[in-house]
Amino acid sequence: MRQRRKQDSRRVTVKDLAKDLGMSVSTVSRAFYPDAVIAEPTRKTVLERAAELGYRPNPFAQSLITKRTQIAGMVVSDLTNPFYPEVMTQMLARLQAVGMNVMLAAANEPDQTDEAVDLLLSYQPDLLIVLAVTLSSHAWEKCEQGGTPCIFFNRLSANGQGFGISCDNEMGGRQVADFLIDTGHRNLLYVSAFPDASTNVERYAGFRARTIERGLAEPEVLEAGLFTYEAGYQAGLNMAHLKGKIDGVFCANDIVAIGFMEGAQAGSGLRVPDDLSVVGFDDITMAGWPSHELTTVPQPLEDMMEAIVGLALELSNSSARPSQKIHCFAPGKMIIRNSTRSRVQTSKDLSYA
Amino acid sequence: MRQRRKQDSRRVTVKDLAKDLGMSVSTVSRAFYPDAVIAEPTRKTVLERAAELGYRPNPFAQSLITKRTQIAGMVVSDLTNPFYPEVMTQMLARLQAVGMNVMLAAANEPDQTDEAVDLLLSYQPDLLIVLAVTLSSHAWEKCEQGGTPCIFFNRLSANGQGFGISCDNEMGGRQVADFLIDTGHRNLLYVSAFPDASTNVERYAGFRARTIERGLAEPEVLEAGLFTYEAGYQAGLNMAHLKGKIDGVFCANDIVAIGFMEGAQAGSGLRVPDDLSVVGFDDITMAGWPSHELTTVPQPLEDMMEAIVGLALELSNSSARPSQKIHCFAPGKMIIRNSTRSRVQTSKDLSYA
DNA sequence: CTGAAAGCGCTTACAG
DNA sequence: CTGAAAGCGCTTACAG
Predict the structure, then answer these.
(1) Which residues, 6 or more positions from A20, have their beta carbon under 8 angstroms from its beta carbon?
(2) In chain A, which segments carry CATH 3.40.50.2300?
């Protein structure tokens, strides 16, 4: 038992394979690189035998030389927002399909982030994908100085840092304003989540701008503070303290909206959509559940996924940096469910007022 | 621009550090191994200077020699069940805290699993953590022959394969039976999820056995088939086709229970808890939301987390295999919420019948 | 306690 | 088109 576990079942190496085939190590190695200069029949022979013996180049040895790791580091913080597991699932599958491996770092507490990112960076990932609301400036510096490109998903980088993939949140906010106003809502409210998040800021900006353009009063704002169910719920409870009569609500995202609806019901007995229309953002699976039936703006996930995989591939395989830093896609068409109701007064309804 | 990106900003290596300190490479290297023979003051000097220069041993070069990678491979399939993101978050944080990195493989489609696991295994993780319902036998063989230990989380391995960490699901099922019977329920139903999953099988076994022990008729069974909201919802709809009057329902897990409650309401107008008591399993965050208020059996996550980190550490740092293969913890105390109601008839209530 | 040397499994100029 | 050789950044017997 003195031997090391991993050595017991020795893995086959280039040397073994070369000897087996009566070729040089160099030739065998070349067979695995599409661009390498090697006779096609030779390559075929090598690849076939490799498959038989179960040989795979050792990625550690490979990376030591090539400085490429085929690893994408992924920083996540907000797995309680169902949007992210949904995104991760798709992203993982696609990255896997192009041969990239994903190494995960959780950044639940802001102070954990640095250590987590350091750990990640020591594996020299070809790129970092940030699914978190925040990346500490320390962590960002580390990436910079290590030459590791960052992709910020669903969040525009603060100062033009790194690459960004997101949907046009402002346009989404405008769509919601138009929708609510077109369906007869006149007293609007925005339920704000994490104040520094670009998604939050932009959605509000679009919503507010369009509301004013359409000649209504500036929307009220309720600060939930976080992108969580609990924050939304608390904001819903706080509806009680709001003076004006609100008839249309836009929440920073779906999970906040879902919490908000329940909080409003619990706190002030407000019923959705009878007393209040509520709109979310993202179109997470839960938004379609019968218990919520949330009207929402869907993220253009298909586009965003294609962009991120394309970018990841470029960043890990070519030496030139991609020129386009920001990919911003129009949101999908609003999905109208049962959390909103038209308040347009037909002539018959005029008795009301 | 002909140079490679990663080479531009050269990372500091042992050599650099050794030269800087006027020591040999060997000595510098030893400073990073607690068990290595090295004068304590020397070690201190090295470590300090390393921190200043931002030196970290290159894990790829390290692994090439030590055959240890400090990588835990994680196979996930079921991120739509909120239980898993919750588990992942905690597990990630804890593994990070002990210096392990997590490499992720998604196994959404059964046929993707093999390729994903292969990719993962080529990085020679010290161990594999399986959070998925299923690991193909091909994948398992690969682990075996590569000497990579597997830990199955929340699922007992089929044929004594690998290590298992789970809660005592059968005991949980028994608790639910006792609880429902004690609170006056007499006509019980089990909503079954994925038939091959050990969690599903054991929870049912315990529930059924205890029901019979208590002298009631065997519980009815409704096959949802999957651990998903949608499957639970469908099962709820199917309540309509059930002949007998059911008053107490145990669902394979929380997400199924939540779907079930809504399906039962939508399909047959059955109200929880007035017409029906419903119990879940896991205690996911959502179970506590006002819209669900689900009575449930909590998993002993604290215990399970400690066990998995302990096991991971043993497997990645020592050469001896841990002796205990199965860690099975008693579930937590049932959490009684509003999805269940006592149906014990006090003398006053006897008018009802 | 420290250093010189071998070697982990690869890739890639450099010759031929 | 193929092979011999150097070297990626580290660790670890082996001497001293």
Answers:
(1) A49, A53
(2) 71-168+301-329, 169-298+335-345
Q: Considering just the CA atoms, what is the radius of gyration of chain A in Å?
A: 26
Taking Cα atoms as reference points, which of A225, A227, A221, A263 lies closest to residue A246? Answer: A221
CA distance A5 to chain B (A): 6
B36 CA: nearest nucleotide by C1': D12
Question: Percent of chain B, pLDDT > 90?
Answer: 67
Superfamily covering domain A15-57? lambda repressor-like DNA-binding domains (1.10.260.40)
Name the A residues in 185-214 with CB < 8 Å from any B CB. Answer: none
Fold category of A71-168+301-329 in CATH: Rossmann fold (3.40.50)
A-chain residue closest to B148, CA distance: A6
Per-residue pLDDT tens digits for A239-256: 988 877 899 999 999 999
Q: Where are the alpha helices (DSSP H) in A98-148?
A: 110-121, 137-146
- Chain A residues in contact with B112 by the CB 8 A cut-off are 93, 96
Beta-sheet pairing, A150-153 with A127-130: parallel
Q: Where are the beta strands (DSSP E) in B180-324?
A: 188-192, 220-223, 248-251, 277-282, 295-298
- B110 has a chain A CB within 8 A of its CB: no
Given an 8 Å threshold on Cβ–Cβ distance, is B59 in contact with A115? no
Chain B residues 43-62 with CB within 8 Å of chain A: 56, 58-61
Our CA angle for B266, B269, B270, nearest 5°, is: 110
Does A229 contact B at CB distance below 8 Å? yes
Q: Are A89 and B67 inside 8 Å of each other by CB?
A: no
**Which of A5-14, A149-158, B140-149, B202-211 has the highest mean predicted lDDT (pLDDT)?**
B202-211
B220 touches chain A (CB under 8 A): no
pLDDT tens across B115-155, in order? 778 888 888 899 999 987 677 777 788 888 778 898 999 98
pLDDT level of residue B351 (50, 70, 90 thresholds): very low
Fold of B169-298+335-351: Rossmann fold (3.40.50)
Strand D lies under 7 A from the Cβ of residue B61:
yes
Looking at residue A243, the DSSP 8-state letter turns out to be -
Q: How many CB atoms lie within 10 A of CB A207?
A: 28
Does an H or E element contain A175, and which? helix A169-182
Classify B71-167+301-329 by CATH class.
alpha beta
Q: Is the CB of A61 under 7 A from strand C?
A: yes
Q: How far is CA B251 from CA A166, B191, B277, B285, in A?
A: 39, 5, 11, 17
Q: How far apart are the first and last CA of chain B?
A: 86
